[in-house]
Write a structure and sequence with these properties.
This protein is α/β, with parallel strands linked by helices. Helix content is 33%, strand content 14%. The radius of gyration is 21 Å and the shape is globular. The two termini are 36 Å apart. The N terminus is likely disordered. Keywords: Signal.
Length: 409
Amino acid sequence: MIKRAVVSICCLLMLQQAVAQPVMDSTGISRKALEYYLSRAVTMAEFLAVDPYGNDGPYPNKEDDIRLIRNIGAKFIGRAIYRWGHETDLGNADFLAKAQALMRRVHANDPEVIFQAAVFEAISRQTDSLTVPEWTFQAMGLPVEHRRFRYADMLNTNGKFVDHWGKGRSVPDITRTESQLWLMFLCGTYIRLGCEALHMGQVNLMAMADRDWAAWDGFLQKLRAFARKGSRRGWVLLDAHTPHGGMVAGGRSLLDFNSFPLRIKPVVDKPQQGVLQVGYLDALYGRSKGCVTPSGWQCASLPYLVEFDNFGISRTPGVADTTSHYIWGYDEISWFYLQPESYRNQWLRYAYDWLKKTDSNGFLQMPIARVVTIERGKGMIRNRGNTRSPQCPDGLNVEETVRRIWRTR
C-alpha cells in the first residue's frame, strides 16, 4: 500500500509538471504560454492603486480582491495600475510601496500571476513637477541631466491633439524625444514595481506624426532592452488598442498581442440585449494581422484580448443605435453593469463560447473592476465583479460565473 501510494504521488507530481505552464524569460514567450495568460485574463482597474494618504484607493475591498484572484485562478490582472492625470503620484514613494506590497501578497499565493500597468495617451502639466531619474536617461541612451520633465516639449509642434483632453491635458507626440523620455519613465516605473505587462493605450493617437511606426519601433526596442535587465522575469508583454488589426512594421509585430473593445451590437427589437458579430463597426474579430512576434514565432493572426471598454454615456441612453460604439446608449462596461444579474452571467457565457467558436485567436478579458457611467453629469461609479458579501457589499456576483467558465469550458 505504501509503495502504491508513493507511485501515485510521483505520478501526480509528474502530471503537475507536465501541465505546468511555461513562463516568459529574456528570450521571449511561447504562443502556448501567451495564450495561457490571455485565457485567464481579468480587468481589475487600479487594483494596485492605494491612496498614499491612508484610504483604500478608488477600488476598496483589497482583501476580497486578493481572495477573488486566487478563487477564480486569474493569471493576468489587466490595468492593475495607471494614472490618467495625477502624474505626481508617481513621485510618491508611499504610493509605489503600497502597490508593490499588494503585488507581493498576490504572488505569495501564485507567483505566475502577471500584473499589467496601463500607459495611456494622456499627459498633463503635472509632469513638469517630476524630476527625470538618471535611469530614465540611461535607458534612452541620453546624457544624464539634472532637470524636470518638460510638458511643452512632449506636444506636437503643429498643435495636433494639444489640449485634446481639456486645457493643459494633451496627447504626447511619440516622435518627440521628451515624449519618449516620459514614456520610458512611466513604463520603467511600473516594470520596476514588478509589472510584467504594459497596455500602451491608443498608440495611433500618439503616432500622429510617426510614419510606418518608425518612432514607436525605436522606442519599444529600448523599452524591451530595459525590461530584459530590470523586470521581474526578464521580459515585458506589450499590447495596445489596434483598430487596424495590429502594429506591424515590415512583417514584425511591435506588440506581443493586440487588444480592443468588444463592440457589442444592440439587438434592436430586444431591449437592452446585445450580441457580437464579425464585421460590426470596427470589431477586431477575424482582423488581427499575421506577423512575426517579438518572441520570434510566426502567426497568421496575432492573439488578442477583447474587453468591456469604458468611454462614457451617449446623449440618448436607452436607444439602440447600430452606427454607434455605444450599446443601448452606454459604454460597454456600463451597459453590462446595468443588466440583471442573470443576464450578465448568461451573456458572459455566451460571449466566451461565441469567441471560442468564431475566432480562436481571441480571448475574453473578464470584467471584475472598471469605472461605470450611468447618468450624464452624475459622476462615475465602479463595476465590481466580486461575489457580494460584507467584505465586498457592492459585488455583482460575476466571480463564480468566471470561475465556472474557466474550469468547465
